[in-house]
Amino acid sequence: MHAPSPDAPILFFDSGLGGLTVLGPTRALLPTAPIVYAADYAGLPYGKKSNEELAARVPALLGRLVERYQPRLAVIACNTASTIALSHVRAALDVPIVGTVPAIKPAAEMTKTGVIGVLGTEATVRQPYVDDLSERFARGKTVLRHGSPGLVTGAEAKLRGENVDPAVITRAVAGLRDQPGGDAIDVIVLACTHFPLLHDELQAAVGPDVRLIDGAEGIARRVAHLTEGQRWPETGAPGLAVFTRSEDRPPPPLAALAPYGIGAIETI
Known about the structure:
The chain has helices at about 20-30, 50-70, 80-90, 105-110, 120-125, 130-135, 150-160, 165-175, 200-205, 215-225, 255, and strands at about 10-15, 35-40, 75, 95-100, 115-120, 140-145, 185-190, 210-215, 240-245, 260-265.
């Protein structure tokens, strides 16, 4: 492959705004990297879609985005899309792809009680991929899962400056705690990139003795490693946010995205 142009962006892809939690740590490591952030608002929420729908939708949409923006690398900053469609995307596109997987391995190394919680979308927590991660990295430990679509909605609302319904947080935590052995959870994996946007609310609900972890820092390091030695612009420029057109869900105000280095919005 030819070395990419310094202006070739990193493409971040998510169903909504959750991937911003991956964009943030990546920009910290690569501060002048050109950024295109793509949110599939027309398809949100992914957690309610079937595996077959996502296995077809995600590669097709990413193909359009790659053709349009010519990125040097694409990050699927979405656990649901990654666990279902990552292999399909890699087979379809001739560009390096970084996926997002639940941080079960570090959680297993961190737990003292041997009981781990996994909070994700309904689609993510049912995936055999999660079974495989648990078998490989958390053998002998208890891994409890709960799918919480309400947290996705709450995270999107919070980023728009709206109030988060406390009942959404309560239900999500109870979904783990109320399972057999749930009272012994001491680490919770936030297995959806939206959920770290609600870190403070979730931490307050679970208490100081439970650690919340996600995979964003590891993804950022992976992106930095894969682009090591490539040329970047000398100075950083504001990134672009792209939203698939949705009749009932307009893009958020630019002010909500500006803290993540986004300077323009377009709809496709």
